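[step 3/7] fold_predict: job queued, chain A
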Amino acid sequence: MASARTHDVIIVGGGHNALVAAAYLARAGRRVVVLERLDHVGGAAVSERPWPGVDARLSRYSYLVSLLPRQIIDDLGLKIELRRRRYSSYTPDPADPGRGILVDTADAAATARSFARTVGDPDEAERYATLGQRLGPLARTLFPTMTEPLVNESAMRERVGDDAIWADVVERPLGQLIRSSLASDLARGVTLTDGLIGTFASADEPSLRQNRCFLYHVIGGGTGDWDVPVGGMGRVSAELERAARDAGAEVRTGSEVTSITPDGEVHVDGPIPETLRGRLVMSGVGSDLLERLLAAGAAASDAPAPTERTPAAEGAQVKVNMLLRRLPRLHDEAVSPEAAFSGTFHVNETMTQLDRAYGQAVAGHVPEPLPAEIYCHSLTDPSILGPELRAAGVQTMTLFGLQVPHRLVADADPAASRVALLAAAQRSLDAVLAEPIADVVLEGPDGAPCIEARTTADLERDLGMVGGDIFHGPLSWPWAPDGVDLDRPAVRWGVETAHERILLCGSSARRGGAVSGIGGHNAAMAALELLGAARD
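[step 4/7] structure written:
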């Protein structure tokens, strides 16, 4: 084995947050290396061609951007374009798919008519808009703080300056806010989904994990808008990799970390097994996987092993990627498919259905019908399709199924799980369309349909995400609890672990989660404070 080498910072895992951290550190003159197990970087923020011979690059795992601050884009000189979607969402009534709510951000009057036609209440659109306005102070106040040192909860509450909305979002289960603000089951469900993306919970879950997920979804960019990255997620990660390498960071693929010690020793299994030593180590992997690597390091060095704990991570989603010959027909003749599918298309996501699905999953069953939402990114960004596919009218479709906790597939045969969840997703979707989705799925050159399901088990196996959890564990509030001492840099930036020389830089960090780069930025800021403003 080669002798130990010294780096300022060793980053374990090559996801988008790791690349952000590496770029900032290298730009500050620090010697930094990124170690990625796979043959490419980007983690879940990648674009791939899932079907041989088909010229379509899909954002295979993560797919939309809301939380990536303009500050990071500008600081790192990233050449990426994010496109806003005109139509926020379309939600057909599961009881009568011939009508649905189309939220048109460019036409409030049309949105109001759509609400009235669908739910039979002329005032529901105004209630929906009023709720959005009430959430505005949270978004405008909180989002700019995501790349600043943490403040305590009381200080953040004072900054928001609205005790009523603070109590509704931070102190009481989300279901209470939704019920008191909206009258229709359909509009309530549209709102609740923002608390359930990758999160397994009911509207009234006392842990408030649905509230934390909801908060992150409504503060992005200070507006809560979710944008499509032109060129797909792979473009975002490619720009981050370029920025890191151009700044002087070393980025290694095919380098699997097998253990970490608290004093900064990292063992790497690659073409030539190697031991690296860093003044600091950053973990871009989930906290559960970090604990396993630390336990392996303790075993190798005869140091006390970390206390064993039950993994905290559990994803709760299934993702289905498809290519369509054309958009499917709708029952609703008042809405064009191009409008309905260009935003978020909600499928069987009334509040009642979402809570019922939660109960079914708790009982060990795949929800029926499966709550899901759909996105057709090619309507906003045709560049992800080759010229021939664009000319033929082909479209991408991504379905994201909710309330599917990892426990439902953890001990099952992976192939059988994919088949069962794909069938459940198709049944749910077919229930609100005017034709079976299978009738419009494109076939590849080999005659096979261009459709795939990615389960939490796939994420765990392929990306190392324990439990298939896209957030690497429960989300945390984007402030520090009252009484926490913020004097130490790692604590002040929300990236601390139990070991002084090991920092979190991925979704496990406070204010981590989603494609944001925030975890990487904040870890880099803490590291630069710890290492000193200039090279020693």
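[step 5/7] annotate
The longest strand covers residues 2-12.
The radius of gyration is 23 Å.
exit 0
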